[in-house]
Amino acid sequence: xxxxxxxxxxxxxxxxxxxxxxxxxxxxxxxxxxxxxxxxxxxxxxxxxxxxxxxxxxxxxxxxxxxxxxxxxxxxxxxxxxxxxxxxxxxxxxxxxxxxxxxxxxxxxxxxxxxxxxxxxxxxxxxxxxxxxxxxxxxxxxxxxxxxxxxxxxxxxxxxxxxxxxxxxxxxxxxxxxxxxxxxxxxxxxxxxxxxxxxxxxxxxxxxxxxxxxxxxxxxxxxxxxxxxxxxxxxxxxxxxxxxxxxxxxxxxxxxxxxxxxxxxxxxxxxxxxxxxxxxxxxxxxxxxxxxxxxxxxxxxxxxxxxxxxxxxxxxxxxxxxxxxxxxxxxxx
Length: 333
Known about the structure:
This protein is of the alpha+beta class. It folds into two domains: about 180 residues, endopeptidase domain like (from Nostoc punctiforme) (endopeptidase fold (from Nostoc punctiforme)); about 130 residues, Lysozyme (Orthogonal Bundle). The protein has eleven helices and eleven strands. Strand 9 and strand 10 form a beta hairpin. Helix 2 packs parallel to helix 5 and helix 5 crosses helix 6.
């Protein structure tokens, strides 16, 4: 049954926005399409390449390939600090052995997306073949092999216990629309409960590392390295969202990047109150999360020196995406 409540929130800037939860809950109940997973956004100039290369083998899809390229480079031709190059972030030695002339111009150019994107697809297929007998989720093993090498996946009998690789696999699976196993999308009632819980924390101070499922916790007020030496009881951004959803019976991971990977992406035109709003240049570089309340606003714990507050979702320039938490079995907290 749809809730029939609306909440009025007063913003610090003196404006007032109506959060019409009832109308949006009703829309969600009447239009199942708003629950559909996000199709990974690809720059127009690369869509045909991704769609074509995404069918290189049965183990991949355009969505998986697009999610991988988003994670690797955000479709930017760049060199990583480790020396990986191009939109698909090939190391020179890997490119030498695995790069292909995708556009048939007689050159294999890691900086040419018409070569690099088909090469990424071909390499993914090779990793799928090299890890096909490894126990566990085949897609996750394939992605882990792209990141860490097939030898590491075979030695570990699955995704290696490297934090970078595990985060990489979780982020791509989430972005590609693969919900965590055993979970189901947040209900509107749970979303409203999370918003109500977050609202009770308005005015609490920002505290780096602060907040868990039980409420605000002690952390440093000013910097991640604690250089200020001042400790207060409050929330950081992901601590606030973790707390709010725990009150609704949904238990999220601790960091913003992990919360994105544990949630189901939705498009901005389908976002609803209770969705989480994430900021960063790619799924692997998410640095901030807020709780959407409707009307273009969120509740957030912004940064050192501020308090939990209402803010526009456009108050930061690097809005990466929106995702809906997935209900999971309660874990030890």
